[in-house]
Design goal:
Blueprint: H1 3-16, E1 22-23, H2 24-27, E2 28-30, E3 36-45, H3 56-68, E4 84-92, E5 101-108, E6 119-126, E7 132-139, E8 145-149, E9 152-156, E10 161-170, E11 183-188, H4 193-207, E12 212-214, E13 219-223, H5 228-239, E14 242-243, E15 251-255, E16 260-263, E17 268-269, E18 272-275, E19 279-290, E20 301-312, E21 317-320, H6 326-336, H7 340-353, E22 356-357, E23 359-362
Parallel strand pairs: 15-23
Antiparallel strand pairs: 1-14, 2-11, 3-4, 3-6, 4-5, 5-10, 6-7, 7-10, 8-9, 11-13, 12-13, 15-16, 17-22, 18-21, 19-20
Length: about 375
């Protein structure tokens, strides 16, 4: 086949290669545009005897609430179990305006058994600056169930926390810096000089040379229109630009509490030798009754007989071949026959020896 006939096939092969293009909105955020967490304290009423039991905090809160409603009541005389003290949290999204509804999460502060069927009374939600930004109130939705009786109990899911969809109303908005200044700044979710450079090049290709400037490996400054309508249209085009971000670092995430191990596709392994043996200890205790003869004058006694066994599995030395792809790494580790808990120790040892070509992160 001549070179001229081969060129179309080469072009088709190049077009068939997988692409990993991502939109700007998927890898970067706009500086100054962020959500704000809100927190408050509230009282949940209407519980079916599953509220706080003799909690001074709840009794004092009820006395204060009744006092604001014109009813004077001594906190020490309040003995209701239908009330619970709770925390109220919500997240106010960017550009939130007064009147907008927010979802609310309510969680028990005291010893309430369940918040199921309760109603949250009007509770102010404050930001980190101490200002009130929203008011919350409504009926709780608890996704669990429980029952008890005769000393036995059963429970499904969690009963001491619930949600109120659209349970808060925004009373004050947070000023946004989108329409201020000549420039906007894009902040990469993960710092990477390659991605920052490619982002700057993609913006320059679509909006003209010099439209963007990479300040460092995380921030790219972009010149934008100053008029609000034009700036919104500009940002819409900007966040939908596509580019190929830089490859992430090879990384292995280990959770020793659950035995979970997660690797990304760039992890590789060099040839190494591994020996790992399991040690198990089994303890069995058997209760025995010692009964004396009828005329011996002794007493019946209960004795315990213990049986302790230690088993050590033979750990053979195995050669782990060099692996360049994630699939090869998984197959090589599976060939060892180790459990996930054993792999935690093996991966740490491989990293220390330099055989594991990845960043090891323990969470």
């Amino acid at each position: 086949m001549t070179l001229r006939k081969l060129i179309p096939f080469l072009l088709l092969a190049a077009l068939a290669q997988p692409t990993f293009a991502e939109r700007v909105k998927d890898i970067a955020t706009l500086a100054g545009v962020r959500s704000n967490p809100l927190i408050g304290y509230g009282i949940v009423v209407g519980l079916d005897g599953t509220g706080d039991s003799s909690l001074a905090l709840t009794n004092q809160s009820m006395a204060t609430l009744l006092g604001q409603l014109g009813i004077q009541q001594d906190a020490n005389t309040i003995k209701s179990k239908n009330v619970a003290a709770v925390t109220v949290t919500a997240v106010m999204p960017p550009y939130a305006r007064p009147g907008q509804q927010l979802d609310v999460t309510v969680a028990s502060l005291g010893n309430a058994k369940s918040l199921r069927g309760g109603t949250l009374l009007l509770s102010p939600l404050k930001g980190a600056d101490g200002q009130i930004y929203a008011l919350a109130q409504g009926n709780l939705l608890v996704g669990g169930a429980g029952a008890s009786g005769g000393g036995a109990s059963a429970q499904v899911n969690h009963l001491s926390a619930g949600r109120i969809p659209s349970g808060a109303t925004v009373e004050r908005g947070v000023p946004s810096a989108l329409g201020q200044g000549e420039f906007v700044q894009l902040e990469l979710r993960e710092s990477d000089f390659t991605t920052a450079s490619r982002l700057m090049e993609a913006i320059d290709r679509n909006f003209g040379k010099g439209a963007a400037q990479a300040l460092d490996g995380r921030v790219v400054r972009v010149k934008a229109p100053t008029e609000s309508g034009a700036r919104v249209a500009f940002m819409s085009k900007l966040e939908n630009l596509s580019l190929n971000p830089g490859s992430p670092m090879p990384r292995v995430i280990i959770n020793p509490r659950t035995g979970s191990i997660v690797m990304n596709q760039l992890v590789s392994v060099e040839k190494c030798a591994i020996a790992h043996g399991n040690l198990s200890v089994t303890i069995n205790t058997e209760s025995q009754v010692s009964q004396p003869n009828p005329l011996a004058g002794g007493q019946t006694a209960v004795t315990e007989k213990g049986d302790v066994q230690i088993k050590s599995d033979k750990g053979e030395l195995m050669v782990l071949p060099a692996s360049a792809t994630l699939n090869d790494v998984v197959q090589a580790l599976n060939a060892i026959g180790a459990t996930p808990q054993d792999l935690l120790a093996i991966l740490q040892a491989m990293k220390a020896s330099g055989a594991l070509k990845a960043e090891l992160e323990v969470i």
